[in-house]
Write a structure and sequence with these properties.
By secondary structure, the protein is mainly alpha-helical. Helices cover 66% and strands 3% of the residues. It has 25 helices and six strands. The strands form three sheets. The protein has a two-stranded antiparallel ribbon. A two-stranded antiparallel ribbon has the order 3-4. Strands 5-6 form a two-stranded antiparallel sheet. Its EC number is 7.1.1.9.
């Protein structure tokens, strides 16, 4: 059809949808952007990295099984334990829940795909390339060896020469691009891409968990990204952010890392908790207890998790009052966790559990995670933490929390959702054996490790003497580790065998009420042949024939037009349909863009900085090419979507999904800027080696010009929008002024960095000042590109009174750049005053 959507014969409808949504075969599969394919790829890659991390763990246990072991030397051991932690935290845990969310969220929410399918594919390739850099470096003997937390000064250029630390800093930051992309993707998709009628109060709990997790990622990941950038700048260009001899402070790295690192624990746990809240009620045959209380607990955990980062720094010499505050906060976060656990237990007791393999893993979760939570409360008490800090007790606690709180629920999810992925029914004989091997092996390994920690065995030591009395306990732990590994190997064999040879499964084998089971299993590329209307939290339980009804074209968008990949966008709170989103077709652009960024990262790794500069325009061009498939050159007006409803397409609404994506991306960006300002004030307040040798006297004329240019760029962006309603065209003068304002601001910021900040290598104050002004220059440069882009879109006919989304999205960037630029200039002026004030104190 051309511009109408009508109910078609079911067979014809499915053929038409498949021809539009399918991914090309052969090499064309590298162009896949469909959430089902990308989600599967994430999951398979994450389990592959999990296997690599498991092998590294067994090497650690083999080394520690006996005293004075010569299995590996200290240098190799340092690389092994660093890579084990890095792989498990950055390459397994977060990507696994990303993959699960990419695969299931659209199906649970009643949509055909996520908001930005190309962004998901781009994130996958960034993840694969970044992870490959780390693994190849390990095979070549250049793996990072300073611990997965990369504490300075050990990871600085003086104590870690070579590229080992650079591999971590650049590889992990590359992977973090994937995580931030996923956070933006999930946030917009959950809030806007839902079935009609699915209000926030009817949304699946899994979506609530991922929504809060995504918000935490937007706020929690930028401090680590900033810390990695600053440390790489110190290693590459000798800017002394963390060097105490030149006004830096190693504790700044710890603050930035743990501002990410402690929320990271909950970022990992919350998606697993979402899995539990989804499958536990199905396995016991009743609704979850306390839906609203669980939502409140999720949000509370999200907020409280950001007040705990100093929990990891009790032994670094912070004031006792701060220790007391963070100790209390660390205990307080146990309350929302306990609320969820008690509601899960209540649901379990109120229902009739089926002792299937998923239920076994959930019961294993309860035992292991609760033990980990109890030891977490112990470590939140400062005097105990002083005794157990950096011992194997902390290692045991971490594994009880992360394996119990993430791995066990994810293994339950694997068995529960296997019929959805493969269309085949699990056979549980082998699965039960694998569970008991994992459960017994895990507790044998890490329960004993609590004792070795209490007996004083430090973490990260590659060997020990027999007279310390740890030999027998370490041997038992190592044996348990190999038993657990056998269980995981058996799990992998079981998954493969069931996927290939299991019996065919019914569409909804668990009699679940959530929408993912309303699709065919395995699902087609378009998910739903027509989109459902939702009136409860369990739509499939209320209407068991809903899947067949949707397959027959009984829902919204039950037809095709213009070869568009269509799904609906709804009002955030109520779920009322607002407009039609036209999603992009398969394309190689995500792969090419990620590859270009990969070349940029490798050029930085090998210090080929001229190549780095040359690649930046290529990356920029790649991203601009993404826009060719967006927007519209004519006004179409409202189009029929079925059931008597007409809606506009996304190009004809003021706030399309791209506007929301920019808004949430700027939230992450603001966190990064706030972390940079925090770093400047932290160094001023506590770092040794102050006062600096010179203060920056920012010329008033340049500073005023920079501030004025930023304000002009922001105001001009809105000036460009002003005439749209009256004459259907923007003010081209406003668009030109926005570009000029950003150009002047970028030029002045660069001029200030070059001419007015003396010797930034000499002191951290000067380096931080250069970083603040450099931040302004970078954002003004990007603002210039966006302003020129909107000017081009207007000239090309993509802008009208209906089609103003590009301009409004660019205005968000213009406003943000002006606000942060003014704040950066004010802080640069304030720092010399603060330095004088600190210097005047006794």
């Amino acid at each position: 059809m051309s511009d109408t959507t009508a109910t078609t014969e079911p067979v014809t409808l499915h053929h038409e949808l498949e021809s539009i949504w399918r991914t090309p075969p052969g090499l064309g599969r590298l162009s896949a952007v469909n959430h089902t394919i990308v989600g599967r790829r994430f999951i398979i890659a994450a389990f592959t990295f999990f296997a690599i991390g498991g092998v590294l763990a067994m090497l650690i246990r083999a080394q520690l099984a006996t005293p004075n072991s010569a299995f590996v030397g200290p240098d190799v051991y340092n690389q092994i334990f660093t890579m084990h932690g890095t792989v498990m935290m950055f390459l397994f845990a977060i990507p696994l829940f990303e993959g699960l969310s990419i695969y299931f969220l659209p199906k649970m929410l009643g949509a055909r795909d996520l908001a930005f399918p190309r962004l998901s594919a781009f994130g996958f390739y960034c993840y694969i390339f970044g992870g490959s850099i780390l693994i190849v470096a390990m095979i070549a003997g250049y793996a990072p060896d300073s611990g997965w937390f990369m504490y300075t000064p050990l990871s600085s250029g003086r104590y870690s020469p070579g590229i080992n630390a650079d591999v971590w800093l650049l590889g992990v930051t590359f992977v973090e691009i994937s995580a931030v992309a996923a956070a933006v993707e999930f946030t917009v998709s959950i809030l806007k891409f839902r079935a009609p009628g699915m209000s926030l109060a009817r949304m699946p709990l899994f979506a609530w968990y991922i929504l809060v997790t995504s918000g935490m990622m937007l706020v929690g990941f930028p401090p680590l990204i900033l810390g990695s950038i600053l440390l790489e700048l110190e290693r590459a260009f000798d800017l002394p952010f963390f060097d105490p001899t030149r006004g830096g402070d190693p504790l700044l790295w710890q603050h930035l890392f743990w501002l990410f690192g402690h929320p990271e624990v909950y970022i990992i746990f919350l998606p697993a908790a979402g899995v539990i809240s989804t499958i536990l009620p199905v396995l016991v045959g009743r609704d979850i207890l306390g839906y609203a209380w669980i939502v409140v607990a999720i949000v509370a955990m999200g907020f409280l998790s950001f007040g705990l980062w100093v929990h990891h720094m009790f032994t670094v010499g912070i004031p006792h009052l701060a220790q007391a505050f963070f100790s209390a906060a660390s205990v307080l976060v146990a309350i929302p966790t306990a609320v969820q656990i008690f509601l899960w237990i209540g649901t379990l007791m109120a229902g009739r559990p089926r002792m299937s393999v998923p239920m076994l893993y959930l019961l294993g979760f309860f035992f292991v995670f609760v033990c980990g939570g109890l030891t977490g409360v112990m470590l939140a008490i400062v005097p105990f933490d002083w005794q157990a800090h950096d011992t194997h007790f902390v290692v045991a606690h971490l594994h009880y929390v992360l394996v119990g709180g993430f791995v066990f629920p994810m293994l339950a999810a694997a068995y529960y959702w296997l019929p959805h992925f493969t269309g085949r029914q699990p056979l549980y004989g082998v699965g039960k054996v694998a569970f008991w091997l994992i459960f017994i092996g895990f507790n044998t390994t890490f329960l004993i490790m609590h004792l070795t920690g209490l007996l004083g065995m430090p973490r990260r030591y590659y060997t020990y003497a027999p007279e310390f009395g740890w030999t027998g306990l370490n041997l038992i732990s190592s044996v348990g580790g190999f038993v657990m590994t056998m269980g995981f190997a058996l799990f992998a064999v079981d998954m493969f065998a069931q996927a290939r040879f299991g019996r065919r499964a019914a569409r909804n084998p668990w009699n679940a009420g959530s929408l993912e089971w309303a699709t065919a299993t395995p699902p087609p590329s378009y998910g739903f042949a027509s989109l459902p209307a939702v009136s409860s939290r369990s739509p499939l339980r209320d209407r068991p024939d809903l899947g067949s009804e949707l397959a027959a074209g009984g829902g919204y968008l039950a037809g095709t037009r213009n070869d568009w990949q269509e799904t609906l966008v709804v009002e955030m709170a109520t779920g009322k349909p607002q407009h039609i989103a036209i999603l992009p077709q398969p394309t190689f652009l995500p792969l090419a863009t990620a590859a270009a960024i990969g070349v940029f990262v490798l050029s930085l790794l090998f210090k080929v900085y001229l190549l780095s500069l040359a690649v930046v325009p290529a990356v920029l061009v790649m991203f601009l090419l993404w826009t060719r498939a967006t927007g519209a050159e004519i006004d179409r007006g409202p189009l029929p979507v079925g059931h008597g409803l007409d809606l506009p397409i996304h190009a004809e609404v003021p706030h399309p999904a791209s506007w929301w994506a920019m808004l949430f991306l700027l939230v992450a960006n603001a966190t990064l800027f706030g972390s940079l300002a925090f770093g400047a004030l932290f160094l001023w307040l506590v770092a040794p080696g102050w006062p600096p040798p010179a203060l920056v006297e920012l010329p008033l004329l340049k500073a005023a010009g920079l501030a004025a240019a930023l304000v002009v760029a922001s105001a001009a962006g809105h000036l460009g929008l002003a005439p749209l309603a009256k004459r259907d065209r923007p003010s081209e003068l406003g668009l030109v002024l926005a570009a000029l304002g950003h150009a002047v601001a970028a030029g002045l910021a660069i001029w200030i960095c070059v001419a007015d900040i003396p010797a930034p290598r000499s002191h951290a104050y000067l380096a931080v000042t250069a970083a603040l002004i450099g931040y302004v220059a970078l954002h003004a440069g990007i603002g210039l590109v966006l302003a020129l882009f909107t000017l081009y879109r207007n000239r090309a006919g993509y802008v009208s009174s209906r089609r103003s989304g590009d301009l409004r999205t660019a205005c968000l960037w213009h406003d943000y750049t002006a606000l942060t630029g003014l704040a950066a200039v004010a802080l640069v002026y304030l720092l010399p005053v603060l330095v004088t004030f600190r210097d005047a104190q006794p």
